[in-house]
Structure formats: C-alpha cells, structure tokens
Amino acid sequence: MATALGTGLAILLLGLVVAGLWLIWRRPFIGIGVLVAGMAFHSFALMWLLHLGTPHLLVRAFQAWKEIVLLVLTVVAVSRIWQSRHSARFGQLIVTDWIAIALALVAIAYFVVPASVFHSGVNQSQRLVGFRIVFLIPLVYFLGRTVGTGSDRERLAVVWLGLGAAAVATVFGIYELFFIPTRVWLDWGVNQYTSFLGFTYHGPAGLPENFFLTLSNGTLVRRMVSTYISPLGIAYTSLVLFPLAVAVMDRRVTQKTARWIAMLTTLLILGVVLSITRLALLALVGEAVLLWIVLRQAWIAGLVPVLVVAALLAVFPYTTIAPAVDRNLGSVHRLGLQWGFTNDSSTREHYGYLVQDLRFDLEHPLGLGVGASSARYGTLVGTGESAVLGMFGDMGMLGGGLYLSLYLLAIWLGWRTLRMTRKASLEEVMPLIAFVGGLGLLPITMTSDVWGDLSVTFLFWWAAGATATLSTRAVRVAPREVWEKPPVQKAA
Predict the structure, then answer these.
(1) CA pair distance 207, 471, nearest whole angstrom
(2) What is the C-alpha to C-alpha distance for residues 211 and 231, in angstroms, rounded to an integer?
C-alpha cells in the first residue's frame, strides 16, 4: 500500500515537473523562480518518497528535476546565442565572463585529473558532488547572463514564486516546531533521507546536529527545519530573497501587491528568527541597512530596529520558550530565562575549523581536487567548513582565486549597475540581489559551505549573471539624491 502511495506521489511530482518545464520553455526567466521555489520543497518530498518505499528509479527521476530544468534552460540559452551570433544582442565578453569561463575550465581539469595524482583518496561519487557544486556557479551565472533579465511581469512572477515558497515553509515550520514532537521526524524518515544522500550525522538518534542549539546545561533547543529539513537552508535562502522583497515593494507595484509582499516578507523574517541562525540574523540587519542606504526610503530605515529586536528575541527569551529535548529526544520543561549564547561552543568550533582549513590551504597550494571538501560518500580529506577556503582546498590558489574574484566582482557589478541607472522599474531587483545579497552572504561564505544549499546558489549566481548583462546595457544618468519612485498605482 505504501509503495503504491509512493508511486502515485512520484507520478504527481513528475507531472508538476513536466508542467514546470513547459512554462520554462515559454518563459525562460521564470526558470529561476521555479528552481528556488522547487528547492524549498525538494528535500521534504524526497524524504516522503523514500519513506513510502517508492521504487528507486522513480525517486532518482524526481531527484533529477533540477538538473533537467538547468538542461532546458541551457538549451534555450545556447539557442538564443546561436540565433543572435551575427548581432550585438549579448555584447562582448566582459571580465566576469572570462573569469567564469576560466573557473569552469579549472573545475573540469581538477575533476578529470585522477584523485591519485593529488593523493587525496577521494572517491568518484565524492568528486562528482564536489564538481557539481563548483560547476554550477559558472553555469548558472551564464544562464543569468543570457536569459536572466526578463520583463517586469516575469520578475514579479519570480518574486511570487520565491517569497510564496518561503512563506509556506515558515508556516509549516511553525507547525512542525511547536506542534510536532521531534521524534516524529524519525517516523517520517529523516534518517533514511540523509543516508540516501550520503551523509552521516551524530545528533540524538542520528538526527542532524543542526536541528538543535545546545544550551549550557546540555538542553537541546529545537530550531525550525521545515520543508528544507535544515535551518541553514531556511536562513541562507532568506538572505537572497530579502533584497528581492524589499526592492519590489519600493518599485512600481500596486498597493495591494505591496501589502501581500510585505506579509510574505514578514513570514520570511520569522523563518530566519525561528531557525536561530545567528550569523544570518546579523547579516539580515546589515542587508536592511544597505537597502536603506541605496533606496533611501524611511520605511526601510524603520525595518532596522525591528530586525535588531527580532535577532535578540531569537536567543533571548525564545530559547526559554522554544521546544526543547534531552539527548533521548524527551521533552524538557524549563523555568527561568536562558540566554542562547550561554554555551557558545558553536562559535568556538567554527573558529577552530576556519584556522584548521586555512592551514590546510597553505599546506596544499595546488589543492586536492574537487570533492575533497565534500562530507558526502566518505571521509572528509580537505577543508569543509568554509565555501571560500573549500574552493582553495579543492582547486588550489588558481581555482580559489578565480572563485573569489568572480564573487567580489559580482558584488561590485551590482553596485555599479545600481549607480548607473535610477529608473523606477523591477529591473533593479537583480543588481540589488547581487550587491546587497552578495554582501550579506559574504561572512557566511567564510564560515559555511553555503553553495551546498542550491536555492542560494541558483538565485545569487543567476542575479550575478543578469546584473552583468544589465551593466552592459545601462546608461549613466545624472546622480540623484534618492531613487525615483512613481506614484503607487491603484489596485485594479
């Protein structure tokens, strides 16, 4: 019976994938919205397919939906380039294009060269996972470069998809966090899911360690994991969606649309708070400050103290009222206020890992090959804590330097494009993601393997590519004190 239900669910999900592919073929720009929204539910759907005993062929078919979407978008991009090869539609290659091409070639070289050359002992599955993460960066960048600008209508559709998925994830996350015992996740098959992906965790009952925040007395405070099955996926995706939401509310939209987006943004912020991802909370405050500096709107300045208060509430007194368990997943009832930073072992561990990774990179200037920093399918032999240091550890100083240059130039292009145009249009959404989102993610890339969360990879690097295209089309205008904003249209 369960297998039949799993088969039916798989067929339904594959039907949704086909519908999404049809939409993307007609409106390629909306593909980024489909990718980001789809990744919000990908893990949860995959867990249930495994739990229901779905035939592995169907599970693998569904698991590959994102690669199929990328393939369709690549076909569209190549087709457009071929059709316009005799025109100047896409312009000349710019610096970031050449760096992205070089990064792709270096990644391929480090994947093709046998692991035995680097004496790393990385297995083939691990190398494949590592290569995919690195290669996705230039691939998605060029997709954004080619089909990533879109019309205002398509941009608004992407906003609804991204923010809508984040809001649904938050609503479900509140339900699972406060009304579902942690042990139920085991019944849902979370350990089966993580094992299927090749991970081994050492939390209570084999759960991922990041399900919890550990207090000084050993009490485990539950963090929201929701449909992402990860608090980090919720928090990091929100950091690239937040500039998108604020930018749209400040652009040419109706009052009704702005109100709905404001409500979805509130849920997005709540999701970050309940995930108790402290660095992401600080980055969210920083993004609000940057958005106020760039957009110069009083209501954005008013967001800053609200976010500061929300960040404080995430650790005090939320850690007192939040669901908590012991090492056996039994409920723990607490009295009195408790500060979430009392036992700051997480910060000490992150610092120790960073120092260790930096030393490793200095000792291996040529790297150990892609996948050495991946924790899947074997023992970690490279770095693994930092997206930046991981690139150096895998592909040496050359590959790491190319990656870091591309990332920093994407942020700079976002700022440059914003300075070159001031028209009140949703066109500015992509540069704001590249600039504000890029700076918001910068400290996180130093402390976390952030590109393993594909929703972040898709949206940021697509925005980076789209911004590169907009930067070649933008026309410099006289500077203005504030962004020009037209009268808000009345709702139809």
Answers:
(1) 45
(2) 7
DSSP classification of residue 151: -
Q: What is the pLDDT of residues 58-89, one digit of tens each?
A: 999 999 999 999 999 999 999 988 877 666 56
The rounded distance, in Å, linking the Cα atoms of 281 and 354 is: 21
CA distance 461 to 434: 8
256-272 in b/e form (b: 16+ CB < 10 A) is ebbebbeebbebbbbbb
**Chain Cα centroid distance, residue 185:** 23
Cα separation of 296 and 482, whole Å?
6
For 434-472, the pLDDT digits (tens) are 999 999 999 999 888 899 899 999 999 999 999 999 888
Alpha helices of 113-225 — where are they, by DSSP H? 115-118, 124-147, 152-179, 184-188, 190-197
CA distance 488 to 93: 38
Q: Structure tokens of 459?
A: 């949206």
CA 173 to chain CA centroid, Å, is 17
> CA 217 → CA 50, 315, 350, 442, distances in Å?
36, 15, 21, 33
**Would the pTM count as exceeding 0.85?**
yes
Classify strands 212-214 and 220-222 as parallel, antiparallel or unpaired. Answer: antiparallel
Compute the distance between CA of residue 198 and CA of residue 427 in angstroms, rounded to an integer.
Answer: 40
Q: What are the residue boundaries of the structural domains of the chain, listed by start?
A: 1-89, 94-149+344-423+438-474, 150-342
Residues in the chain: 492
3-state SS, residue 268? helix
Q: Could you tell me if 104 and 406 are in contact, meaning their C-beta atoms sit under 8 angstroms apart?
A: no
Q: For residues 46 and 230, is the Cβ–Cβ distance under 8 A? A: no
Does residue 225 contact residue 209 with C-beta atoms inside 8 Å? no
